[in-house]
Amino acid sequence: IEITKIIESDKFKIAIGATSVIGEPLLPRLLKAFNEKHPEIEYEILISRKDHLLKSLKEGLLDVLIIDSEHIIDSNLEIFHLDSVPYILVGKKDYANIERVASDPLISRKGIPNNNSVIASLEKKYRISFNKKIEIQGNTEIIKSMIREGIGNSILPFYAVRKELEKNELKEIERIEDIKDGYQIVITKDKRNVLAIIKFIKFVQSFRM
I need a labelling partner for 65 at 20 to 30 A (CA). Which of 25, 44, 50, 118 fits? Predict the structure, then answer.
């Protein structure tokens, strides 16, 4: 009854979980725009690992997840697939040609399946080999800081470097269109009729990264 009253009065607080690769570059812009359109909906945020987020969602501690694309098979969950964007090879300096890029270290995200596919695609296309790799397991902010310091270059999804490219803090060396990275919303099926969650999902679906 209490929840029904909240829904009917159009007041609700949703708990949103996100992985760092999505949360850090995307959530601030998304939530600012969402708050302007729906000031009546409050929210709280948890940034964590994907496995922990899914566990919290199933336990009812979170209402909505925004995570990078994952093949999830669970009859109790509903998945909404959203934007797919290209990967961008970014760095700090200008190169005469992409072949020169391979002579500098490539800062690589460890444990990201698409990462190796994108590297292999670039190596095949330009017949180059990234022999110097620095593997990072963690958030993308560390990688971007290392690029700014001139330690090396990296391949990241467009949404992760959009702001830095606009501010000219990082330079786009190459855009990889044949392999894309997307993100998705995950909810438990018992939450799909909650008005505030419906509003949030519809807003995110229309939001352009």
Answer: 118
Cβ atoms 130, 119 nearer than 8 A = yes
The pTM of the full predicted model, rounded to 2 decimals, is 0.73
Output the six-digit token pair for 112: 């990201």
CA atoms of 20 and 49, how far apart (whole Å): 8
Q: Provide the 3-class DSSP secondary structure of residue 117.
A: helix
Amino acid, res. 204? V
155 with 176: CB under 8 angstroms?
yes
84-140 pLDDT, tens digit per residue, is: 889 999 999 999 888 899 999 999 888 777 788 899 999 999 999 998 999 988 778
In DSSP terms, 80 is beta-bridged to: 185
**Structure token digits, residue 173:** 């060396």
Q: How does pLDDT run across 177-187, given as a tens digit for each residue?
A: 888 887 889 99
Instruction: Please report the sign of the dihedral spanned by the C-alpha atoms of residue 28, residue 36, residue 207, residue 184.
Output: positive
| Single-letter amino acid, residue 67 | I
CA distance 152 to 91: 7
Q: How confident is the model over 159-174, as pLDDT tens digits?
A: 889 889 999 999 999 9
A 10 A CB-CB count for 52 gives: 13
First vs last Cα of the chain: how many Å apart? 38
